[in-house]
Amino acid sequence: MANIINVVNFLILFPFIMAIIIGLLKKASPLRSAVIIIGGFTIMAAAIYVAVNVLLSGKILIVYLENIELYNHIVVALEVFLMVLVCFLSIKYKKFYAIIFSLVGTIPVLWMDLTGRAVEYSNHLRIDTFTAVMYLIVGVVGILICIYASGYMKDYHHHHTDVQDRSNYFLALMFVFLGAMFGLISSDNLGFIYFFWEITSVCSFLMIGYTRTQEAVDNSFRALWMNLLGGCGFAAGLMYCNMNLEIANLSDLTGIAATSKFVIVPVTLFAFAALTKSAQFPFSRWLLGAMVAPTPSSALLHSATMVKIGVYMLIRVSPLLYNTLTGIMITVIGGFTFFAASLLAITVSDGKKVLAYSTISNLGLITACAGTGTTEGVWAAVMLVLFHAVSKSLLFQTVGDIENCMGSRDIEDMHGLIIKLPRLAFIMMIGICGMFMAPFGMLVSKWAALKAFVDSGSVWLVIFLVFGSGSTLFYWAKWLGKICTVIHQSFELEDITPRSEMVSIFPLTSLIVIMCFAFPWMSTNMIQPILNESFQELIDPVIGGSDVIIMMIMVTMIFMIPIASRFLAIGKNSKMTMSYVAGVNAGDDRHYIDSFGKERALYMSNWYMDEFFGEKKLLFPCIIVAAVLVAVMLIIVVGGAF
Q1: Is the dihedral of CA 269, 272, 276, 279 positive or negative?
Q2: Is the pLDDT of residue 354 over 80?
Q3: Which residues contact 55 (CB under 8 A, 6 or more apart)?
């Protein structure tokens, strides 16, 4: 156990050391790439080592740190530093509203710590099964994104000569992000969780504003104030636990039965903070604005770090949400976000924006599942987190590489991608299939989500899931069809994707396929223990024998249908026919004769239906509706307690 504790400390501290080293190295040098690859794989190996040991042992590791006074002084000093940094940059860019949220969130917590009102004797670190699963997400997916970024940033500045090359600073921030994530998911002490929570808010702000354009600055400050607002909610919950309930640990809070309105108050405040972090409506705009940053930032924020913190907290407190007003409101907000963001994703053609709306949508589904407080809901939420992290990371990286090769990330420019960039097209197809097709886990997890929603007795939630899943199918199938459609100007382009980026992309592609077949094993050995620990009792398996049989049939059909089709075609005479294009096909299936008798290239375009529910029509009303729901939750639950 002592060895595991040392490795955990290494995971928390070493990424910060890596950030310092990277900041001192020469830009875009082979040494920098070597340091990132060697250091990254070292962190990955350590994360896998801890995760495997915890999963195999089935034990919960509780750690009380020695010299805690020293750690507390360091945390206080760094909290002050973050507050001063935010205030300085807010004054520099004249965004004064961010100062208010920073002061309101930080000063009361500092006052509580410095005046001795915080609970002193508490656990500091807690490594359980859910922590181990999050280690795998952060340590594997997060590190692969950092390795991808080491090659991507060189190409990025080659194509964006107008942006000052501060890639060392950007890469260092990514490792700071990972260190904060390891610290947060390892911590049981609410004060430590809040500290790492704020680090991620500031890091995302700095990464989004990397290019220093006016758009980047505006979007970065939007992300900052929204996440600092959530931080204020977390700080209030932290102080309430320490000063009213005399609780300093998250595990102590989740171990209490949610029968008292005084217990549900901090849970509601933590849930509010989680909504901001996971970019749920009405706080979704900060994640949409984050795509102005280089692609590795989007991949990291959407898959392995920032947004996963929010749903991580919701899953932690999920058992306390069962049959409560807070749980109902969280589930409704999540279900509404899932449906609305899916509709909005249909109406945009920017690849990164589609992925952003998809992230918000899927996080909404995870939020809704956690809000039910049921075992099926938690099972579906954790499984969705796993599959979403891998698939979304792969998709963002592939879109970034396609943009570098083609000079565009617009879906309409990806027609015939299977011919233009066959390797990247094949990888993207696997990533897209992983998001919505059988037998991949995202689809199977929706079965459990549907059962959780039906058990909750809410017709609205079932409607959100059904129609949200339908619109999800629409925008993914539309993109997939565009990639496979071979029309005019579909000739192979030079694939300039560096080998260092493929070191990240190939493992993620393999992981999606492996997880598809390992689904039953993951449920038994990773998700089921989380349910037992969260609900503090032995839970019946959510996935039974009949479910496994159905999944195996799905896997078989994926391979059998094309094979059977080939056998059925044996001995049959094939006939090549031209496509019907108003009766004026030019003869090569790629050109047609227009009304003036001129030959023109054929072009097929997707329909985005923005005149029905585009961003201008739907986004603002969705924000208003969700804002009202959040306000009602806070007023009734928190206001009623006082």
Answers
A1: positive
A2: yes
A3: 129, 132, 525, 526, 529
600 DSSP β-pair partners? 592
**H or E stretch at 232:** helix 214-243
Contact 542, 531 (CB under 8 A): yes
Give the start-end residues of each E strand in 529-636: 591-593, 599-601
Determine the Cα–Cα distance for residues 141 and 304; give it in Å rounded to an integer: 6
- pLDDT category at 172 given cuts 50, 70, 90 is very high
Q: List residues bridging with 62 in a β-sheet.
A: 126
Distance in angstroms (rounded) separating the CA atoms of residues 174 and 273: 22
Task: Please name the amino acid found at residue 629.
Answer: L
- The residue behind tokens 């758009």 is 215
Residue 246, classed as helix, strand or coil, is coil
pLDDT at residue 221 above 90?
yes
CB 583 within 8 A of CB 592: no
**Phi/psi at 438 (nearest 5 deg)?**
-75, 145
Yes or no: say if 184 and 309 are a contact pair by the CB < 8 Å rule: yes
Q: Which residue has the tokens 């989004």?
A: 208
User: For residue 194, is pLDDT > 70?
Assistant: yes
CA torsion through residues 479, 485, 489, 493, sign: positive
User: Which residue, among 383, 472, 395, has the nearest Cα to 430 in the 3D structure?
Assistant: 395
Residue 469: count other Cβ atoms within 10 Å of its Cβ.
21
81 Cβ neighbours under 8 A, 6+ residues apart: none
DSSP for 503-567 reads HHHHHHHHHHHHHHHTHHHHIIIIIHHHHHHHHTSPPPPSS-HHHHHHHHHHHHHHHHHHHHHHH
This prediction's pTM: 0.90
Phi and psi at residue 61, in whole multiples of 5°?
Answer: -100, 115
Whole-angstrom distance, CA of residue 267 vs CA of residue 254: 9
